[in-house]
User: Fold these one by one.
Assistant:
Number 1:
Amino acid sequence: MSQRKFLDEAGEIKRLKVIAAKIRKDALENITKTKAGHPGGSLSVADILTALYFGRTCDPEAGLWENILRYDPADPLWPNRDRLILSKGHAAPALYAALAQAGFFSDDLLKIYRKIDSPLEGHPAMYRVREENGRLVEHGTKGVDFSTGSLGHGLSAGAGMALHAKVYGYDYHVYVILGDGDMQEGMTWEACLTIPNKGLSNVCGIVDFNRLQVDGRTDDINRLDPLAQKLEAFNWEVKEIDGHDFYALIDALHEFKKTRSEKARPLMVLANTIKGKGVSEIEGICKYHALPLSDEEFGRAETECL
């Protein structure tokens, strides 16, 4: 039985679509209530986050399920967990919604997004625990492996984490979600050069390629294409997929985990997405990069998401 047919019969795709809809709804609700945040990119990345945190594959003969992303909400600093870096940190509302569903914290915490002293800041803050005045104090957000905001830093941080795994004998994988703007940054391309040169095949970059950014179309501002050929010239394996197709997402991510020990190259997934995906009246509209929805728009969007 093919993996696609098995996923269908097990109801996996339907389950993932329900989760993604809730991520979109929760992210938009937080952005609308606080009148701050980035709806377009939060919606375009929702399916990618869903595939990573909730996607599973199965060996039909053995009947064993395996999660795409290896993590433990009860032990967010587990040394051998897979790392996930949201380099396009402005999509934090979608990440927080995914982390809540994954069990890192309750949905109630989402209600204090961007409030004073809330761990859910406008951009993700790395979770850490340190001793202060004789007691352990938590900082940042559970489930966040690296602080991001200014574009271009995530892939370099991922390179460091991947090198740590290689040097100290861990078998975790590092996933870095990048945006169009990330791919225009010099530091990203330094990492693109370094990661293959260091043999860091445990790195998987995923470009949320919605082709819009705050000032307009990516092609009009600083064109990236032919992006696949550029990355291949840097010795990356490249897969170009529909970033809203769960079959394609699961296949690409599953193959990455299954073949890393056999291959010398890291993987970059070019996930073609739609900014504002899931809310028809804002899909593909540049101004919703950082424009919160009105209460009336959210009311319509909430109905559509559900």
Note: The mean pLDDT is 94.
Number 2:
Amino acid sequence: MATVAQIWRYPIKSHGREALQSVPLSADKTLPWDRHWAVAHENSTAD
């Protein structure tokens, strides 16, 4: 049986991670608030 050693989420894309003790998961959904926000400036391109 597999076990999860650590859970990390990145609330702001490319801006550091947040350790989670537990997280509610739902079928066909992403990790809640993972990469929910992004910061861009006028010279950047969105991906």
Note: The first strand starts at residue 7 and ends at 9.
